[in-house]
Amino acid sequence: MLLGVTLLRKRYPPAKYLCVLLIVAGVALFLYKPKKGTGDTEHIFGYGELLLLLSLTLDGLTGVSQDHMRAHYQTGSNHMMLNVNLWSTLFLGAGILFTGELWEFLSFTERYPSIISNILLFGLTSALGQSFIFMTVVYFGPLTCSIITTTRKFFTILASVVLFANPISPMQWVGTVLVFLGESGGKIQGGIRRKNRVEFIFGLSLVWFFLILNGL
């Protein structure tokens, strides 16, 4: 969303910004784990954080380029998926040849040939999943696709918490509520007059936030 606004000059309804902010804040609260005091030296911004920042930036630029192709060239989902995977194969193929990982992979498959069937199954399910992802990008836009994939990861973790009875902290409960608010706000905003959408979602967020804090 940020790169779309800054690079493509896209504009979204104020309620859309609020819904995205609620989802991002909720996921961040749910995944945040405060570091326990260990007496170690203070952590500084390092190589791992730099790679993560680069990954997020490139992911955002991918969404911007997809939005540009969708708006100016009416690119089909299968056409976009085919070309993205062809170029990915070209670049990654050169990468594994340069690093020598290709020969390590072939050696691994010789030692464990049963892994080949798992790789084929993974490739099939990945292709099916990508089909839905690119259909979402083409028909609904990269921002909607990003929201879906982010909340999908959140609900996967939440399902594991429920199924395996893992303990959940008060902060994670607040994060859960914020994600549900962001999701429900995006769905119900169409039924509310435009000038009242932000006030409605903001008020609903405050109500649920204080209710969950009071219950904790």
TrEMBL record:
Signal peptide: none annotated. The chain crosses the membrane at residues 15-32, 44-64, 84-103, 115-142, 154-182, 198-215. InterPro entries: EmrE-like (IPR037185), SCL35B1-4/HUT1 (IPR013657). The keyword Mitochondrion does not apply. It holds the Pfam family UAA. One of its GO terms (cellular component) is Golgi membrane. The keyword Disulfide bond does not apply. One of its GO terms (molecular function) is UDP-galactose transmembrane transporter activity. It comes from the Eukaryota. It is a multi-pass membrane protein. It is found in: Endoplasmic reticulum membrane. Keywords: Endoplasmic reticulum, Membrane, Transmembrane, Transmembrane helix, Transport. Its main location: endoplasmic reticulum. Belongs to the nucleotide-sugar transporter family. SLC35B subfamily. This is Solute carrier family 35 member B1. It comes from Zonotrichia albicollis (White-throated sparrow). The lineage of its organism: Eukaryota, Metazoa, Chordata, Craniata, Vertebrata.
